[in-house]
Amino acid sequence: MEHPLKSPSQNPDQATAETIPADLAVEIRKMAHELSNALEIIVQTSYLLGTVEIKDPGSEWLRMLDNGVNKAMDINLSLRNYVKSHSES
């Protein structure tokens, strides 16, 4: 399934006819920034958990956590890039 913010025919650096209103873009950027802050806490905690010996099934859960966090970070980055390429500011 293709990610809704990523389109193969869409270049994030290209200006498009569809522009997000400036006030809405500011609010989305604020939320994306707050999401980044929350994800950073999870990333750091996951890293610290990875420095200690964890037995199964805990080690598998840690791997699942890392995968989920990486996906969330990728989505957040895509959101930020989308807003940047579809807004005037």
- How many domains? The number is 1
| Percent helix | 55-70%
Q: What does the radius of gyration come to?
A: 17 Å
Beta content: under 5%
> The biggest beta sheet, please?
none
Number of helices: 2
Distance between the termini: 31 Å
Structural class from helices and strands? mainly alpha
Oligomer: single chain
Count of DSSP E strands? Answer: 0
Average residue pLDDT: 85
Are there runs of 5+ residues with pLDDT below 50, and where?
Answer: none
How would you spell out the order of helices and strands? HH
Anisotropy-based shape: elongated
Q: Would you give an account of this structure?
A:
With about 90 residues, this protein is an all-alpha fold. The protein has one domain. Helices cover about 65% and strands about 0% of the residues. Helix 1 packs antiparallel against helix 2. The longest helix has 29 residues. It is elongated. The protein starts with about 20 loop residues before the first helix and ends with a helix.
